[in-house]
Amino acid sequence: MARRSAPSQPRRGPTLLRLGAAAVGVAVGAGLLGVFWPEPDRVTQPLQRLTPADLAKPPSRSITLLVIGLDSERPSDPLNKAAPPGAANADALLLVRVNPQGPLQVLTLPPNLAVQLPGQKRPLSLGSLYRLGGVALTADAVRSLVGLDSGQPARFLVLGRSSLRSLVDGLGSIAANPSLAIRYNDKSQRFSINLQGGLQRLKGNQVEQLVRYRDPNQPEESRQDNHQLVMRSLLREMALPEQLGTLSSLLKSLNNAGIVTNLSHPETLSLLSAGLGQAESVQFTSLPLAPATAGTRGTSLPLREISSSAPDPLWPAPATSALD
Protein backbone atom coordinates (compact mmCIF):
# COMPACT_ATOMS: atom_id res chain seq x y z
CA MET A 1 0.00 0.00 0.00
CA ALA A 2 1.24 3.30 -0.86
CA ARG A 3 2.33 5.43 2.04
CA ARG A 4 0.41 8.70 2.43
CA SER A 5 2.60 11.69 2.57
CA ALA A 6 2.34 14.07 5.54
CA PRO A 7 0.59 17.43 4.96
CA SER A 8 3.00 20.07 3.73
CA GLN A 9 3.94 22.88 6.25
CA PRO A 10 3.46 26.54 5.29
CA ARG A 11 6.45 28.02 3.60
CA ARG A 12 7.11 30.99 5.94
CA GLY A 13 10.33 32.23 4.46
CA PRO A 14 8.95 34.03 1.38
CA THR A 15 5.99 35.47 3.35
CA LEU A 16 8.24 37.07 5.98
CA LEU A 17 10.41 38.46 3.24
CA ARG A 18 7.38 40.01 1.56
CA LEU A 19 6.20 41.61 4.83
CA GLY A 20 9.63 43.00 5.53
CA ALA A 21 9.86 44.41 2.04
CA ALA A 22 6.47 46.07 2.45
CA ALA A 23 7.53 47.68 5.73
CA VAL A 24 10.71 48.99 4.15
CA GLY A 25 8.65 50.31 1.26
CA VAL A 26 6.35 52.19 3.59
CA ALA A 27 9.29 53.72 5.42
CA VAL A 28 11.01 54.74 2.20
CA GLY A 29 7.75 56.10 0.82
CA ALA A 30 7.21 58.19 3.92
CA GLY A 31 10.70 59.56 3.56
CA LEU A 32 10.17 60.41 -0.10
CA LEU A 33 6.83 62.00 0.78
CA GLY A 34 8.71 64.31 3.11
CA VAL A 35 11.00 65.27 0.23
CA PHE A 36 8.32 65.86 -2.38
CA TRP A 37 5.69 67.22 -0.01
CA PRO A 38 7.57 68.95 2.82
CA GLU A 39 6.06 70.62 5.88
CA PRO A 40 4.66 74.11 5.23
CA ASP A 41 7.35 76.77 5.08
CA ARG A 42 7.35 78.89 8.23
CA VAL A 43 7.50 82.00 6.08
CA THR A 44 4.12 81.16 4.57
CA GLN A 45 2.53 80.51 7.95
CA PRO A 46 0.62 83.34 9.67
CA LEU A 47 2.96 85.82 11.34
CA GLN A 48 2.82 86.45 15.06
CA ARG A 49 0.12 89.03 15.83
CA LEU A 50 2.10 92.01 17.08
CA THR A 51 0.80 94.51 19.61
CA PRO A 52 2.14 97.98 20.51
CA ALA A 53 3.71 96.44 23.63
CA ASP A 54 6.07 94.49 21.34
CA LEU A 55 7.71 97.72 20.12
CA ALA A 56 9.48 98.59 23.38
CA LYS A 57 8.95 98.98 27.09
CA PRO A 58 6.67 102.01 27.68
CA PRO A 59 7.98 104.95 29.73
CA SER A 60 7.60 104.75 33.48
CA ARG A 61 6.12 108.25 33.73
CA SER A 62 4.33 110.83 31.59
CA ILE A 63 6.31 112.48 28.79
CA THR A 64 5.30 115.76 27.13
CA LEU A 65 6.32 116.24 23.50
CA LEU A 66 6.12 119.44 21.42
CA VAL A 67 5.41 118.68 17.75
CA ILE A 68 6.18 121.48 15.28
CA GLY A 69 5.07 121.14 11.68
CA LEU A 70 6.79 123.64 9.39
CA ASP A 71 5.61 125.30 6.17
CA SER A 72 8.86 124.24 4.48
CA GLU A 73 9.62 120.91 2.81
CA ARG A 74 12.37 120.08 5.33
CA PRO A 75 13.52 121.76 8.56
CA SER A 76 16.90 122.46 6.97
CA ASP A 77 15.44 124.40 4.02
CA PRO A 78 16.30 128.11 4.07
CA LEU A 79 12.91 129.11 2.62
CA ASN A 80 9.38 127.97 3.22
CA LYS A 81 6.84 126.86 0.63
CA ALA A 82 4.29 129.50 1.49
CA ALA A 83 3.33 132.94 0.28
CA PRO A 84 5.06 135.27 0.78
CA PRO A 85 8.30 133.24 0.73
CA GLY A 86 10.68 133.54 3.65
CA ALA A 87 12.14 131.60 6.55
CA ALA A 88 10.12 128.66 7.81
CA ASN A 89 7.22 129.20 10.22
CA ALA A 90 5.42 126.73 12.44
CA ASP A 91 2.31 125.82 10.45
CA ALA A 92 1.03 123.28 12.99
CA LEU A 93 1.70 123.03 16.73
CA LEU A 94 0.75 120.15 19.01
CA LEU A 95 1.50 119.32 22.61
CA VAL A 96 1.37 115.55 23.10
CA ARG A 97 1.38 113.97 26.54
CA VAL A 98 2.10 110.25 26.59
CA ASN A 99 0.70 108.61 29.71
CA PRO A 100 1.83 105.04 30.40
CA GLN A 101 -1.28 104.42 32.52
CA GLY A 102 -3.82 106.58 30.74
CA PRO A 103 -5.01 107.91 27.38
CA LEU A 104 -2.86 109.90 25.00
CA GLN A 105 -3.56 113.62 25.46
CA VAL A 106 -3.15 116.13 22.62
CA LEU A 107 -3.47 119.92 22.79
CA THR A 108 -3.74 121.71 19.44
CA LEU A 109 -2.27 125.21 19.39
CA PRO A 110 -3.23 127.68 16.63
CA PRO A 111 -0.12 129.10 14.89
CA ASN A 112 -1.78 132.52 14.61
CA LEU A 113 -2.33 132.75 18.35
CA ALA A 114 -1.19 136.16 19.61
CA VAL A 115 1.82 136.13 21.96
CA GLN A 116 3.56 139.09 23.54
CA LEU A 117 7.34 138.77 23.84
CA PRO A 118 9.34 140.88 26.28
CA GLY A 119 10.70 143.97 24.53
CA GLN A 120 8.24 143.74 21.64
CA LYS A 121 5.72 146.54 21.15
CA ARG A 122 3.25 144.41 19.25
CA PRO A 123 2.09 140.84 19.68
CA LEU A 124 3.40 138.22 17.28
CA SER A 125 1.91 134.99 16.06
CA LEU A 126 2.96 131.84 17.89
CA GLY A 127 3.90 130.24 14.59
CA SER A 128 6.34 133.04 13.68
CA LEU A 129 8.48 132.42 16.76
CA TYR A 130 10.18 129.46 15.11
CA ARG A 131 11.83 131.68 12.51
CA LEU A 132 12.95 134.05 15.26
CA GLY A 133 14.29 131.60 17.84
CA GLY A 134 13.69 128.03 16.68
CA VAL A 135 12.51 125.29 19.03
CA ALA A 136 13.78 127.01 22.19
CA LEU A 137 11.76 130.20 21.78
CA THR A 138 8.67 128.32 20.62
CA ALA A 139 8.86 125.94 23.59
CA ASP A 140 9.32 128.84 26.03
CA ALA A 141 6.22 130.57 24.69
CA VAL A 142 4.16 127.36 24.83
CA ARG A 143 5.33 126.66 28.39
CA SER A 144 4.25 130.13 29.53
CA LEU A 145 1.00 130.01 27.59
CA VAL A 146 -0.18 126.62 28.86
CA GLY A 147 1.34 126.86 32.34
CA LEU A 148 3.70 123.89 32.12
CA ASP A 149 6.29 123.13 34.78
CA SER A 150 9.87 124.29 34.34
CA GLY A 151 11.73 122.20 31.80
CA GLN A 152 8.56 121.26 29.93
CA PRO A 153 8.05 120.19 27.23
CA ALA A 154 11.01 117.87 27.68
CA ARG A 155 11.02 116.48 24.13
CA PHE A 156 10.41 118.01 20.71
CA LEU A 157 9.85 116.87 17.14
CA VAL A 158 10.19 119.19 14.12
CA LEU A 159 9.13 118.00 10.69
CA GLY A 160 8.55 119.53 7.28
CA ARG A 161 5.81 118.80 4.80
CA SER A 162 7.84 116.12 3.02
CA SER A 163 8.15 114.21 6.33
CA LEU A 164 4.39 113.91 6.66
CA ARG A 165 4.06 112.66 3.09
CA SER A 166 6.88 110.15 3.61
CA LEU A 167 5.31 108.84 6.83
CA VAL A 168 1.94 108.24 5.18
CA ASP A 169 3.45 106.70 2.05
CA GLY A 170 5.70 104.52 4.22
CA LEU A 171 2.53 103.10 5.76
CA GLY A 172 1.00 102.73 2.29
CA SER A 173 -1.95 105.05 2.99
CA ILE A 174 -4.28 105.92 5.85
CA ALA A 175 -8.05 105.71 6.20
CA ALA A 176 -9.72 109.10 6.59
CA ASN A 177 -13.28 110.36 6.41
CA PRO A 178 -13.52 114.02 5.35
CA SER A 179 -17.07 115.22 5.90
CA LEU A 180 -17.21 117.17 2.62
CA ALA A 181 -15.49 117.29 -0.75
CA ILE A 182 -12.79 119.97 -0.80
CA ARG A 183 -11.71 122.03 -3.81
CA TYR A 184 -9.13 124.80 -3.56
CA ASN A 185 -6.47 126.38 -5.77
CA ASP A 186 -3.76 128.82 -4.65
CA LYS A 187 -1.71 130.08 -7.59
CA SER A 188 0.64 132.08 -5.37
CA GLN A 189 1.80 128.89 -3.64
CA ARG A 190 1.26 126.64 -6.66
CA PHE A 191 -0.86 124.47 -4.44
CA SER A 192 -4.23 122.88 -5.11
CA ILE A 193 -6.61 120.66 -3.13
CA ASN A 194 -8.94 118.13 -4.70
CA LEU A 195 -10.42 115.68 -2.21
CA GLN A 196 -13.62 113.67 -2.18
CA GLY A 197 -15.80 113.49 0.90
CA GLY A 198 -16.43 110.24 2.78
CA LEU A 199 -14.37 107.31 4.00
CA GLN A 200 -11.37 106.61 1.77
CA ARG A 201 -7.67 105.73 1.71
CA LEU A 202 -5.39 108.77 1.35
CA LYS A 203 -1.81 108.89 0.09
CA GLY A 204 0.80 111.29 1.42
CA ASN A 205 0.10 114.17 -0.95
CA GLN A 206 -3.64 113.91 -0.22
CA VAL A 207 -3.04 113.98 3.54
CA GLU A 208 -0.95 117.13 3.05
CA GLN A 209 -3.87 118.69 1.21
CA LEU A 210 -6.21 117.83 4.07
CA VAL A 211 -4.03 119.25 6.86
CA ARG A 212 -3.39 122.48 4.94
CA TYR A 213 -7.01 123.23 4.11
CA ARG A 214 -8.83 126.08 5.86
CA ASP A 215 -12.54 126.70 5.60
CA PRO A 216 -12.88 130.44 4.78
CA ASN A 217 -15.74 130.76 7.27
CA GLN A 218 -13.76 129.31 10.20
CA PRO A 219 -10.13 128.98 9.08
CA GLU A 220 -8.43 128.08 12.34
CA GLU A 221 -11.13 125.84 13.74
CA SER A 222 -11.47 123.85 10.51
CA ARG A 223 -7.72 123.32 10.23
CA GLN A 224 -7.50 122.07 13.82
CA ASP A 225 -10.36 119.66 13.11
CA ASN A 226 -8.47 118.33 10.08
CA HIS A 227 -5.28 117.94 12.11
CA GLN A 228 -7.16 115.89 14.69
CA LEU A 229 -8.75 113.75 11.98
CA VAL A 230 -5.36 112.99 10.41
CA MET A 231 -3.67 112.27 13.73
CA ARG A 232 -6.40 109.81 14.74
CA SER A 233 -6.07 108.09 11.38
CA LEU A 234 -2.27 107.89 11.66
CA LEU A 235 -2.44 106.40 15.15
CA ARG A 236 -4.98 103.78 14.10
CA GLU A 237 -2.94 102.80 11.06
CA MET A 238 0.35 102.54 12.96
CA ALA A 239 -1.33 100.42 15.65
CA LEU A 240 -2.35 97.72 13.13
CA PRO A 241 -0.41 94.46 13.65
CA GLU A 242 0.78 94.43 10.04
CA GLN A 243 2.22 97.95 10.43
CA LEU A 244 3.87 97.53 13.83
CA GLY A 245 6.64 95.34 12.42
CA THR A 246 7.65 98.06 9.94
CA LEU A 247 7.65 101.08 12.26
CA SER A 248 11.24 100.81 13.49
CA SER A 249 12.75 100.85 10.00
CA LEU A 250 10.28 103.50 8.82
CA LEU A 251 11.23 105.83 11.68
CA LYS A 252 14.92 105.39 10.92
CA SER A 253 14.36 106.35 7.30
CA LEU A 254 12.37 109.43 8.36
CA ASN A 255 15.15 110.52 10.72
CA ASN A 256 17.65 110.16 7.90
CA ALA A 257 15.40 112.31 5.72
CA GLY A 258 15.71 115.33 7.99
CA ILE A 259 13.37 115.18 11.00
CA VAL A 260 14.79 117.20 13.91
CA THR A 261 14.24 115.80 17.41
CA ASN A 262 15.92 115.23 20.75
CA LEU A 263 14.29 111.80 21.00
CA SER A 264 16.53 108.78 20.58
CA HIS A 265 15.27 105.88 18.48
CA PRO A 266 14.58 103.70 21.58
CA GLU A 267 12.73 106.61 23.23
CA THR A 268 10.56 107.06 20.15
CA LEU A 269 9.61 103.39 20.14
CA SER A 270 8.88 103.58 23.87
CA LEU A 271 6.50 106.52 23.37
CA LEU A 272 4.80 104.74 20.48
CA SER A 273 4.41 101.62 22.60
CA ALA A 274 2.42 103.60 25.16
CA GLY A 275 0.61 105.92 22.74
CA LEU A 276 -0.48 103.33 20.19
CA GLY A 277 -1.79 101.14 22.97
CA GLN A 278 -4.35 103.92 23.59
CA ALA A 279 -4.93 104.79 19.91
CA GLU A 280 -8.71 104.53 20.24
CA SER A 281 -9.01 106.76 23.30
CA VAL A 282 -7.04 109.88 22.40
CA GLN A 283 -8.15 113.01 24.28
CA PHE A 284 -7.96 116.11 22.05
CA THR A 285 -8.19 119.60 23.49
CA SER A 286 -8.48 122.81 21.48
CA LEU A 287 -7.98 126.26 22.90
CA PRO A 288 -11.19 128.33 22.92
CA LEU A 289 -10.48 131.45 20.88
CA ALA A 290 -11.92 134.95 20.97
CA PRO A 291 -13.30 136.35 17.70
CA ALA A 292 -10.66 137.32 15.13
CA THR A 293 -9.28 140.85 15.22
CA ALA A 294 -7.60 142.90 12.52
CA GLY A 295 -4.50 141.39 10.93
CA THR A 296 -1.20 141.99 12.65
CA ARG A 297 2.35 141.54 11.43
CA GLY A 298 3.86 138.10 11.88
CA THR A 299 1.04 136.13 10.26
CA SER A 300 -0.97 136.04 7.06
CA LEU A 301 -4.13 135.47 9.10
CA PRO A 302 -5.68 137.69 11.74
CA LEU A 303 -4.18 137.08 15.16
CA ARG A 304 -6.39 135.25 17.62
CA GLU A 305 -6.49 135.53 21.37
CA ILE A 306 -7.63 133.00 23.93
CA SER A 307 -11.23 133.48 24.96
CA SER A 308 -11.88 135.00 28.37
CA SER A 309 -14.09 132.00 29.12
CA ALA A 310 -11.20 129.54 28.67
CA PRO A 311 -10.79 127.03 31.52
CA ASP A 312 -7.95 127.20 34.00
CA PRO A 313 -5.75 125.27 33.44
CA LEU A 314 -5.99 125.29 29.65
CA TRP A 315 -4.90 121.66 29.44
CA PRO A 316 -6.25 118.85 31.64
CA ALA A 317 -3.85 117.49 34.24
CA PRO A 318 -1.84 114.39 33.29
CA ALA A 319 -3.28 110.98 34.03
CA THR A 320 -0.28 110.19 36.27
CA SER A 321 1.26 112.30 39.00
CA ALA A 322 4.79 112.54 37.60
CA LEU A 323 5.98 114.45 34.56
CA ASP A 324 9.26 114.06 32.73
Give your account of this protein's structure.
By secondary structure, this protein is an alpha+beta fold. Helix content is 34%, strand content 16%. The chain has helices spanning 12-36, 129-146, 161-171, 204-212, 219-238, 241-244, 247-256, 265-276, and strands spanning 63-70, 90-98, 105-109, 114-115, 124-125, 155-159, 174-176, 182-186, 191-195, 200-202, 260-261, 283-286. Helix 3 packs across helix 4 and helix 4 (204-212) runs antiparallel to helix 5. The radius of gyration is 32 Å and the shape is globular. Residues 1-11, 30-47, 295-299 and 320-324 have low confidence and may be disordered.
Which secondary structure elements does this structure contain, and how are they paired or packed?
Elements: H1 12-36, E1 63-70, E2 90-98, E3 105-109, E4 114-115, E5 124-125, H2 129-146, E6 155-159, H3 161-171, E7 174-176, E8 182-186, E9 191-195, E10 200-202, H4 204-212, H5 219-238, H6 241-244, H7 247-256, E11 260-261, H8 265-276, E12 283-286
Parallel strand pairs: 1-6, 3-12
Antiparallel strand pairs: 1-2, 2-3, 4-5, 6-11, 7-10, 8-9
Helix pairs in contact: 3-4, 4-5
Short overview:
Helices cover 34% and strands 16% of the residues.
Gyration radius, rounded:
32 Å
According to CATH, the fold-level topology of the domain at 52-161 and 243-286 is: Nucleotidyltransferase, domain 5
- Structural class by helix and strand composition: alpha+beta
Q: What spatial form do the alpha-carbon principal axes imply?
A: globular
The helix-strand sequence is HEEEEEHEHEEEEHHHHEHE
Separation of the first and last Cα atoms: 119 Å
**CATH domain class of the domain at 52-161 and 243-286:** Alpha Beta
Number of helices, where a helix is a run of at least 4 consecutive DSSP H or I residues: 8
- The share of residues in extended strands comes to 15-25%
Helix amount, in percent?
Answer: 25-40%
